[in-house]
């Protein structure tokens, strides 16, 4: 484990950052639904979309830094590859490529990735409360 990875597991900022990313992942499908149902706030929706994309870009860069920017180590975790593909799919429409809706739909799968984490956190929290 690299020094950054060891530090990041103990750092309060890491915990805060993980929670911010998780919140963005959970809010992202709502943004998608909003964009499909409301044509009057297109500029606001695009601005929020850019914010989510920026946060997810920082997340991938942080994970790359945790493996000392070695792509071979980064791609050992399938979820890293999955997140990188989704990020690229989200960035392509921003830089002018078409298929923006497809990229946004793909981000729903990003949210599904974290459902098991939420279930484990809920079970752990329930278990710890029952011990008191």
Q: State the order of secondary-structure elements, H for helix, E for strand.
A: HHHHHHH
**What does the radius of gyration come to?**
17 Å
Helical percentage: over 70%
**CATH architectural grouping:** Up-down Bundle
Number of strands: 0
- How many strands, which pairing sense, and closed or not: the largest β-sheet? none
Number of domains: 1
Give the overall average pLDDT.
75
Structural class determined from secondary elements: mainly alpha
How large a portion of the residues is in β-strands, by DSSP E? under 5%
Count of runs of 4 or more consecutive helical residues: 7
User: What is the CA–CA distance across the termini?
Assistant: 34 Å
Shape: globular
> What fold name goes in the CATH topology slot?
Four Helix Bundle (Hemerythrin (Met), subunit A)
Low-confidence region ranges: none
CATH class: Mainly Alpha
Descriptive notes:
This protein is mainly alpha-helical. It has a single domain, classed as Four Helix Bundle (Hemerythrin (Met), subunit A). 83% of the residues lie in helices and 0% in strands. The chain has helices at residues 3-10, 12-37, 42-66, 71-74, 78-94, 100-113, 115-130. Helix 3 runs antiparallel to helix 5 (78-94) and helix 5 packs antiparallel against helix 6 (100-113). The N and C termini lie far apart (34 Å).
């Amino acid at each position: 484990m690299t020094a950054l990875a060891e530090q990041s597991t103990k750092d309060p900022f890491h915990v805060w950052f993980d929670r911010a990313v998780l919140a963005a992942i959970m809010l992202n499908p709502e943004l998608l639904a909003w964009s499909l149902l409301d044509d009057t706030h297109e500029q606001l929706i695009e601005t929020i979309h850019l914010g989510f994309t920026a946060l997810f870009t920082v997340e991938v860069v942080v994970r790359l830094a945790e493996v000392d920017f070695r792509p071979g180590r980064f791609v050992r975790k399938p979820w890293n590859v999955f997140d990188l593909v989704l990020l690229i799919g989200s960035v392509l429409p921003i830089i002018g490529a078409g298929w923006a809706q497809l990229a946004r739909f793909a981000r729903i799968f990003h949210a599904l990735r974290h459902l098991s984490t939420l279930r484990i956190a809920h079970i752990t929290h329930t278990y710890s409360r029952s011990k008191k």
